[in-house]
Amino acid sequence: xxxxxxxxxxxxxxxxxxxxxxxxxxxxxxxxxxxxxxxxxxxxxxxxxxxxxxxxxxxxxxxxxxxxxxxxxxxxxxxxxxxxxxxxxxxxxxxxxxxxxxxxxxxxxxxxxxxxxxxxxxxxxxxxxxxxxxxxxxxxxxxxxxxxxxxxxxxxxxxxxxxxxxxxxxxxxxxxxxxxxxxxxxxxxxxxxxxxxxxxxxxxxxx
Length: 207
Description:
Blueprint: H1 10-17, E1 36-41, H2 48-56, E2 59-65, E3 68-75, E4 82-86, E5 89-95, E6 102-107, E7 112-118, E8 125-129, E9 134-140, E10 144-148, E11 154-159, E12 168-175, H3 179-199
Antiparallel strand pairs: 1-2, 1-12, 2-3, 3-4, 4-5, 5-6, 6-7, 7-8, 8-9, 9-10, 10-11, 11-12
């Protein structure tokens, strides 16, 4: 599988075509509860500021539900490991220190929004937000991951690609009423997983 020069399958192109230009740039996360979404290489860009970010980023992805785009993930670009965006705003992920598995989650204005603390041996980690909500990202063998909140406030299953041409499937199974933290946790998890797969040489868009 490869990252550069990836192509879209016919199924993914059809999914992207359902995101009409007349729709909002991003849809509420609630629209995707119970649906199977896909994390695919970016097909179209949104706002002017995000266009500048993705122009600098080597790899950009969209989280697409049947009804439309939920969020966007751009890896790299400037001093950021990743930038994510959804209807509630834009955030960036930066290394907290040169060594270690901790990532700062910052809002576009520089305010700290949370922290991702990775686990070196077990994979995954903990997303702790400044609103005191906490989420766990855990590996589910053989090719799955699960993001879980408290009670659970958020329960998301990720299914990694099994071969060329496949995309990551994302199923939101449970969601609390307050979706801002849930969206940030979901997109942080997407960014962490795409970073891991990219660094390991796997692809979200082989073809």
